[in-house]
Amino acid sequence: MGAIPLPPNRTIEPHMATQAEFKAAKLDPVLAQAQAGQRDVWFVDAAHFVRGCYLCAVWSLVRMMIRGASGRQRYNVLGAWNPVTRQLIWVTNATRVSSDTMIELLVRIAAAKTRATTRVLDNARYQRCAKVEAEAQRLGIALLFLTSYSPNLNLIERLWRFTKKKVLRGHTYPDFAAFQAAIDDGLDKTATEYQEEIKTLMTLRFQTFDKTSFLAA
């Protein structure tokens, strides 16, 4: 994850303590239930894939100029990842992610629901709002909100980085439709071609922080 993100006006020690307490008291118990087959846990977040230029290295005997996109178009993916079944459910659009998008994802998760279900998600406004919480309650889905500034505890963040590496780095697409199709294809391949890579990447070993790691840095 790189450097630990810090909330404004907080020091490292209390932030680390808050994360550790949340993981031990709330996240680990639901994950233990999931591994025992008693609960489904879904890690939820949105990725905003921008059709632009991504740094990479290409060796060539002559100088080449490759026209890149303006970076003004983006493809939004709101996804949910189940770390036990390794299943991905997602919804997409090219406008913005809103509470309605979140409810659409909730409905898709509910359609696959066979047992108690928990969604782990951050505190974005379109997620932590009365409309979404009411729909989750109606569908019988528990919402477990992460502590602030804790992307290291949201497993699906790794999938977004993996997708960018596979689909965007070193690639250029002729138009936005091709760009969208490439991302959809990359997400589809998490269950097929990329399955072995995903298996070692999307584990339940979370990066945590302590004083020692900062002193070493």
Biggest sheet features: 5 strands, mixed
Helix count, DSSP H or I runs of 4 or more residues: 7
Strand content: 15-25%
Classified by CATH, the class is Alpha Beta
Termini distance? Answer: 14 Å
What is the number of E strands?
A: 5
Oligomer: single chain
CATH homologous superfamily identity: Ribonuclease H-like superfamily/Ribonuclease H
Number of domains: 1
What does the overall shape look like? globular
Overall average residue pLDDT: 89
What CATH calls the topology is Nucleotidyltransferase, domain 5
Q: Helicity, in percent?
A: 25-40%
What is the CATH architecture term? Answer: 2-Layer Sandwich
Domain Tc1-like transposase DDE: 42-178
Pfam families: DDE_3 (PF13358)
Organism: Gemmata algarum
Protein name: IS630 family transposase
Structure description:
- The protein is an alpha/beta fold.
- It contains 7 helices and 5 strands; from the N terminus they run αβββαβαβαααα.
- The protein has one domain (37-50, 68-212): Nucleotidyltransferase, domain 5.
- It has helices spanning 12-35, 99-111, 130-139, 156-168, 176-188, 195-201, 211-216; strands spanning 39-50, 74-82, 87-93, 116-121, 141-145.
- It has a 5-stranded mixed β-sheet with strand order 3-2-1-4-5, sandwiched between helices.
- The longest helix has 24 residues, at 12-35.
- The protein is globular, with a radius of gyration of 19 Å.
- 22% of the residues are buried.
- Mean pLDDT is 89; it is low at 212-217.
- Residues 42-178 form the Tc1-like transposase DDE domain.
